[in-house]
Amino acid sequence: MILKNHVEDKSETIAKYEKIALDIAYSILNDEWKVGEMVKGRSTLSGKYSVSPETIRRALKLLEELQVVNVIEKKGILIKSKEAANTFIKEYQSKDRILSLREEIAKLMEEKNAIEKSVLERMDAVIEQAMLLRNIGIIYPLELKISEKSHLVGKSIGEVRFWNHTGATIIGVNRSGHLYLSPGPKLVFFSNDIILFVGNAINISDKVNKYVNKV
Prior knowledge:
Layout: H1 2-6, H2 16-29, E1 38-39, H3 42-49, H4 53-65, E2 69-72, E3 76-79, H5 82-139, E4 142-145, H6 157-160, H7 162-166, E5 169-175, E6 178-181, E7 194-198, H8 204-212
Antiparallel strand pairs: 1-3, 2-3, 4-7, 5-6, 5-7
Helix pairs in contact: 2-4, 2-5, 3-4
């Protein structure tokens, strides 16, 4: 179908009858249909473009208003002006560019919204961390440094079953000035890590010290 050769398919941005009108204009501009030539009627064009006669009627009406063709009842379509066809094509190209810019702007707006959503998520994470830090200030956690000879070195929190052996809960690990809050069971202990922990037992500090630094 000639329509696919001449017009890029943009069904969401241009009506079907406009695309057919544009294709006919290209056919005239490329001398496939010459000025003064009488082209067969709407039923033939309807079959050619696989659309309803009403769609062809709207396409021809548009071209007739622009002085590109003249529809003569019971005879056909008279090709009237190559210059008018060229003018219509240029006007479409301008319209198409505006529609393309609109699509680009819509895409940029989507990206902007995604960025704003990401920023809000990070802000929520910062607030959550701030709340944790505030709570730590209320709890007053105890601290203990892991010696190089500690049996915890190289093992994960889950592996050593810290709470089972001490009754204390690890709420953070300070590693070279970087604080890991609420570390999960997969965090591996390094020598010189400082454990931040809390517990209810009166002698909790001694229990943790004995367990952590036993060889």
